[in-house]
Each structure stands twice: as C-alpha cells, then as structure tokens.
Amino acid sequence: MPRSSLALLLPLLLLGACGAVGSRAVVQNTGPDELLKLRAGPGLGYSVILGLPDGTELERRHCVTEVGQLWCRVALADAPSVTGYVSEDYLSDG
Fold it and tell me: pTM for the whole thing?
C-alpha cells in the first residue's frame, strides 16, 4: 500500500476503533468502588473534572491518541454541557 494511502486510512481506522462520533457510550469495568476520571484534556496530566461510575451514559464527541492511549472527548448524556476526556479503555458502545 502506498504511504499516502496509509496516511489517509489511519485516521479512519482510529475513528472506527473509537466508535462513531456522536454515538452513545457507557462507562464499564472501572472496578468496585472506583470511578472513571473525566479529565479536562486527553491525558493523565490534565485535572479531574469528576468521577463517573460504571453505567454512566455518555455521548462521544471525538477521540485522539496521546502517548499511545486513545482518549475520547465525551459529554454526559443527562447533562450535555458537562464535557471532558476519558480513556477509551473504559467505554462500551451504548
């Protein structure tokens, strides 16, 4: 595959791995008594906005890769003005 084709295909593959933009997602696998941290930016160095328990419904806005980790910008389904980034590892398709 030519290098230019690969460069065009890679962003589409990353979006596919993240789920459709605007799609529903549900927090999963945080563990007992643990919360998924909603962060101000895509990475562990950003401040925590709030903690999300398993079962929290979200809307995916877009996803980015930072330091080998896929982070998705999300909004709370019940409060769309509350937005931030979460690790894609803890999301399932809603």
Answer: 0.77
CATH code, domain with 26: 2.30.30.40
| pLDDT tens for the 94 residues of the chain, in order | 565 544 444 444 444 445 556 799 999 999 889 999 999 999 999 999 999 999 999 999 999 999 999 999 999 999 999 999 999 999 998 7
Domain that holds residue 47: 3-93
Buried b (16+ CB within 10 A) or exposed e, 51-60: ebebebebbb
Q: Number of folded domains in the chain?
A: 1
